[in-house]
Amino acid sequence: MWIHSGFLALLLSSTLVGNQDAPQKPPEPDKHEAPAKQESAAPQKPEAEKNSGPSILIRAKRVFVRPGEVLEQASVLVRDGKIIAVGKDLAAPKGAQVLEAEVVCAGFLDPWSALCIDSGSWSEPGATAATRAVDAFDPWTPESLRKDTLRAGVTSVRIQAGSYSRTSGVGSVVRVAPQLDLEHAVVNAASCVSMNIGLTSNAGGGQSVEFVDGQPTLVDTRGRPMDTFDRLSDLDRVLSALESGRTYLYSLVDHKHELEDWQKKIVEKETELEKDAKKAKKDREKAQKEAEEKAKTFEDKRYREDKRPQPPRYDEDAEVMSRVADGVLPFFVQAHRVAELRGLVEGTQDFDRLRLVVVGASQARTCAHQLAERGIPVLLWPALRGKGAPEEYTGGDPSLAGDLARSGVSVLLGSGGVDPASTRDLPLLAQLAIGHGLDRVKAFEALTIGAARALDVSDRLGSVERGKDADLLLLDGDPLDAGTRVQRVISAGRLVLNPED
Amino acid sequence: MTTPIFRNLARIPALAALALLAPTLHATGGKIVIKAGRIITQSGPDIQNGVIVIENGRITSVGADTKAPWDAEVLDHPELVAFPGFVEAHTSRGMDRSNENITVTPFLDVRDSIDPISFYFEDSLRAGITTINVQHGNSCVIGAQGMIVKPFGITIEQLQVRPQSGIKIVASPRPGASRALQAQQLRGAFADLRRYLEKLVQDTKDGKDTARREALFQGRDMDKDENKTGRAMEGNANWKLKGFEIVPRGEVDDKQEPLLRAVEGKLPVFLYCDSAASVLLGIDVARENGLLGTTTLVLDGDSWKAADQIAAAKLSVILSPELVYSERDPVTGKEVRTFVPGVFDKKGVHFALQSLNQSSQSLWFQAATCVAWGLDRKKALDAVTRVPAEELRLGKRVGSLEAGKDGNVLLLNGDPLSVKSSVQYVVLEGDLVYDRSKDVRVRQLIEGVEQNNTAPSGAVEPGDVCGDEHKEVGGDPTKKDPGEKKDETKPDHDHGGKKD
Asked: Between A449 and A180, whose confidence is greater?
């Protein structure tokens, strides 16, 4: 496959600009070129155009810059939606709003949510790989729900159309805060592609989650429940979608090279003909004769000269999957049972650029070392579901997060993407996981930079660093401490929640 | 939207009888003088005891002391009020079927679906609507091309005011789809167009003649000048097509050509949105494909919540027939009612109204409801005359009574917004086409249906061609076109609203 290597290298470099923080790579957003450019540009810009926007200076006793890194007695300066400085002795610019806080940290990101998406799209059964969640983003989600979520400290969420369908399409990261314009509300329109394996809701029978009067409810649907073969075919569907994406990518690369060859040949031919038309003709006839004698096909060459190579037939789903196979888009796959998890991990082995995230993973203990070895993050929903829950969740338990983390698996936490209101409970779920053995710093990482990295938004969200978007929580104690209250929330540089709200 | 030719043929005798219900009272040759006690011109102050002169279907003068030509027929009614005909900015009625089974159909035309003898048109005339924009229904992604008609005539050619008046594009989910899927298909349709055109350019460069052969096969006259020559792509789409000038325009497939025309800004767009979030999607798709300048929003549901974004995009709108939106506050549970035209009025967005049905809640009723909710009377009247006329790009032809405009005049026995008023006469392009005193259906409603239920006198006897249709002739005035949705079973006579 000599043709591909060059192109892949090209893609590799271009990919890196977009995703400096792919989960497989060390989390060093600052040392990369792209963010460095942003950061160097950031301080100059505001100085050049002074008073371009109101700025906010936050003085805090402690600033949680990133997981495990705390600055004592520091300030954060925010302007034009960005953090423009973090440091010890920052002076407040003229006209700046000065806020005091005990603790400042990055806003939480729920990587598995049903908030801010319209319910019809959320339950869309016919979503394909190319269905975009950002088109289903609902800026008019009830304000009370959003404020509740902000009060809990969650400032952004990942949404998916057809969340619990076989394929959920392209997911987006959006902000929770109300009254943001679309440009600020959508952080990343294409954050991942998501699919689901072996869910009872996919079976066309058994139980499924449906919206009744706007409330998600488990509904018994008549028919055949999901059986082993359904799950196998689900797994097969996910792997073959990946394969089709890769095939599409290869044929695109092939076409590119064919086209280059063809153009080169045309140019060569033209110069040759110009040089000596007669000689060229003789040569060609000779070549043809030789070919005929040797029983080779001469037509092939002629064909390539006469006809422009055709590009591969466009297929929007294969196009999206090609980006997944190439690692440009992360791939979130929900799977719960041992067989499905093993099948998924083993089946994706030869996709070396794939950025897989396993979602749900109720029985992931059995393949923890494989996940750790391949560096596949796991997105968990540390909730105990009672009776009547879909069967795939019965294995879920709050100590799973801690156990996996100890085995070296990178753990993310989400609120399950079933109920728009439950995103509010994300910090509570994290505390539950902490109580059951997850390291506090790892839990904090899971809700901030970890989730941001997995969703390709770590250049904008997830930590309190210069150049990043100003999505900040002002707390009266340690983040993820049960006694801590969120006092103020800044989202996209705007104060969107005050104590009196 | 298949043309029901055979059914229409079979209906001709029935049709002749129906035509009598709104008969060609006077073929005036378009020359008529109307004298009214009061003329509401909608372009200046009202005129007391004024005269409107219409020649060749156009108004030549309006005024108090205008001299009438000696040879014109005179409609002298000092007790009546003259008002310009109402303009229905958007409807999917009057069609054989308003929606298709396939979702992307820019190559279809409502012309082939409009049923000229539909009761809808008769009722519209009775309610004083003289200009109607018929567009494809809202259950699609990209619909058929629409048409502006007048509600009088028995062939589509007679009805026609302007063909291909626009195309329907839907940004809200059609039944059975979600917004995400609708968006995917809507964006996909434009992406398909773009890829098709790019391939066409490439094929032309490569010297292929497939497109030309297909065009000839489809029966297009490729020797015509407009088809022979190519020209660069026009319009304001965010995507540009390089080298399109080398493709003769006749080679663009009929299936794609209307959408290309829309992208080039040559075909107006009626963009339907049933929620605020759909409005954002619609505006985004319109901006991406250069449609913003030619788009009129057709709104429904809580779309008014996006009034700021609509105002920022400088779009004009056609409002839902439901003028008041009610919802429950999610916290308090209280019902909150919003008067939608009021919202747009405050934001300075031009808005037109739609009829809820063609009789009792016709345009006059909608405008009167707006006044009852506190909207300025002038704005309410404009919303059913001048604004829709502008939105349909007929601002120079209809919407007010002034020299040079089409001779569409209503004579009412009172104020146009009064519940006690009714349309007495309708003059349509200079022809008196409706006289309430001769309206058989109204008379039957007031006086009761004749016992033997026979055809009105003068009805053409049914011929042999349509034995099956005998029963329909003159009978059962309540029988409706199957394509219509919200028909009232009784014909209108009283503008039966409850308020003024």
From this structure: A449
